Amino acid sequence: MALSLAGKFSLCLVLMLASRPLHAASRNLPEASIQQKHEQWMAEHGRVYADSEEKVKRLEIFADNLRFIEDFNRAGNHTFELGLNAYSDRTSEEFLQFSTGLLLPSTPRQKKTSFMYENITHIPDSMDWVAKGAVNAIKNQGRCGSCWAFSAVAAIESITQIKTGKLLELSEQQLVDCTTGNYGCAGGWMDTAFDYIIQNGGITSETNYPYNASDGICHAPTASSSVAKLVGYEDVPANNEGEILKAVAMQPVSVALDGSGREFQLYSSGVFNGNCGTAMSHAVAIVGYGTAEDGTKYWKIRNSWGKTWGEAGYMKIQRDFAQPEGLCGLAMHASYPVV
Ligand SMILES: *[C@@H]1O[C@H](CO)[C@@H](O)[C@H](O)[C@H]1NC(C)=O
Ligand SMILES: *[C@@H]1O[C@H](CO)[C@@H](O)[C@H](O)[C@H]1NC(C)=O
Ligand SMILES: *[C@@H]1O[C@H](CO)[C@@H](O)[C@H](O)[C@H]1NC(C)=O
User: Quick check: CB of 206 below 6 Å from ligand 3?
Assistant: First the structure.
């Protein structure tokens, strides 16, 4: 039942977007300098539009995003800045539809797990698993709601590196195609992906099962083609950033959060403390933490929106937020694989 509900839900979004009226053509074109910036941006990101109608529509959205970015940065009273990225000709709604992918089924957590790091006492002041060589280059989920697969794979790649010294590239596409209980490009949960990998006897490499940002038929790779295995996964006790800190001191952690906000989508640098809620829409991996020069504590998160987003694909986001659920709800559904 959950599956058909989810199918309908995402279909609904597609229809809504497809039937949206085209406002752009009836308005005045943005000024020449913005048109020029759009041309530059198109060249930089290799963007080509199907026809001039599409181009006019995309120019309007680009101009709107650019104004939003410039107004925000001009105010100059924030701890982070916004900027153009490869998605700057999309509306916030399109971004949410195509580039996130965390579904909200009734209960993502079916069982209560233990928390092996509950008693650890040695917690360094800062941690950066990227600098330690435990994190692969930034990837890009493309037009597919597979954030959950990227979040899960990032956490598995890292703990495998930490335990074995080998940094492997693992297959998100295997998870998209094969994880029953998740919905492929229509969304999913990391714990469900971890469960699949445990039951399957492992996960294969990116090379064996490359990513193509679309739903495919599961090649049902056997355990023998697996290059990494899990013995389990654990959930971090919910709504407690202190508990996440213990886990991230030991390994990167998968988290769900609200990535639907425009400031989140247009983030370019600094410590993010912008507008967001707690409606889970996206998933990333926390790969470190630290304290900024002004004393603001932050998490370092690894996104799957390519290197043009944020700080070369990463975001610093405020840590120890006033509410227990964390900024953008990042402390609500944290979990990590056990190898
Ligand atoms: C920044 O300044 C703008 C305009 O003066 C104001 O509306 C906004 O609330 C300020 N934001 C912060 C975080 O102080
Ligand atoms: C943490 O300490 C408590 C109290 O000593 C103990 O009951 C518990 O098993 C410990 N947890 C782990 C994961 O070692
Ligand atoms: C993407 O890859 C999957 C699995 O390899 C395959 O089933 C599917 O047909 C591919 N789709 C496209 C559009 O290439």
Answer: no
